[in-house]
Amino acid sequence: MKAFFLPLLLLSLSLNCNAQLFKKEKVTYDANQGRGSTDNNLLRWGYFLGISHYDFNFDYDFGNQGDLRDIYVNRSPGFNVGLIGNLRINSFLDLRLEPGLCITNREVNYSESYFSGEIQSNDLIREVKSTYIHIPLLLKVSTKRINNFKPFIVGGFSTALNLSSNENNPEDNSNGQFRTKRNSIFYELGFGIDLYLYNFKFSPSIRGIFGINDELVRDNDPNSPWTSNISSMKTRGLFINFTFQ
């Protein structure tokens, strides 16, 4: 259901606002009617909805075991929602805080080559459900506005609190528990475009996030087939956000 909601929303906006976007007349702020762009305000507020694709990037330490097959991550689309606080620096620079909630699900699939002896099929798969409180601090760099369009790039750093983390669970993969750390740090890069409409500013954007810290909690057994061959596991992902200001 979530996978269809945002495309339908975007299509509806396109059908209703196409005439506003492609006319030569610039949309400006009307203080009497309280609508239009508020780009010159020092502080601005908004919200965003989006779709996310989270992945894991593994680095390996196979030791004397030779080259084993890489761990495969099966990804499912996630959902993002949050608020925006925008501080205007000048006509081309803005500092943004975008706290939000991100819900995602990943499935980690191991090759049988990681194990010796008899194994069960459920030993090869670990489901990782994550609910992040995601807080990025970003610098937005915009071009000069062209009629009702204004492209931009954005970058910065973020931190996330995983509410679904089982970091302190005493059970590990031997009991079916794939453990991840509670706190993560990322850097982020992306681009988008501001579309100026009569009643609000609509900004679709694409942003990549890249984990900095290792998020894997090792098993109690130092020779565990699930964690002993992994030197680091970091989140990476792609956000497609639709912002309303």
Explain what this protein looks like in three dimensions.
The chain is mainly beta and 245 residues long. It has one domain: Porin, CATH 2.40.160.20. It is built from one helix and nine strands; from the N terminus they run αβββββββββ. Strands 1, 2, 3, 4, 5, 6, 7, 8 and 9 form a nine-stranded antiparallel beta sheet that branches. The longest helix is centred in the N-terminal third of the chain and has 21 residues, at 2-22. Mean pLDDT is 86; it is low at 31-35.
Question: Topology of this structure?
Answer:
Elements (H helix, E strand, L loop, with lengths): L1 H21 L20 E18 L11 E17 L4 E5 L2 E10 L15 E18 L6 E14 L20 E14 L4 E11 L18 E15 L1
Antiparallel strand pairs: 1-2, 1-9, 2-3, 2-4, 3-5, 4-5, 5-6, 6-7, 7-8, 8-9
Write down the CATH class: Mainly Beta
In angstroms, what is the radius of gyration?
A: 22 Å
Domain count, please report it. Answer: 1
Mean pLDDT: 86
- CATH fold call: Porin
Overall geometry: elongated
Rounded to the nearest angstrom, the distance between the terminal CA atoms is 25 Å
How would a crystallographer describe the biggest sheet?
9 strands, antiparallel
Give the second-level CATH assignment, the architecture: Beta Barrel
How do the SSEs run, as a string of H and E? HEEEEEEEEE
Number of helices: 1
The low-confidence runs, each spanning 5 or more residues with pLDDT under 50, are: 31-35
Total beta strands:
9
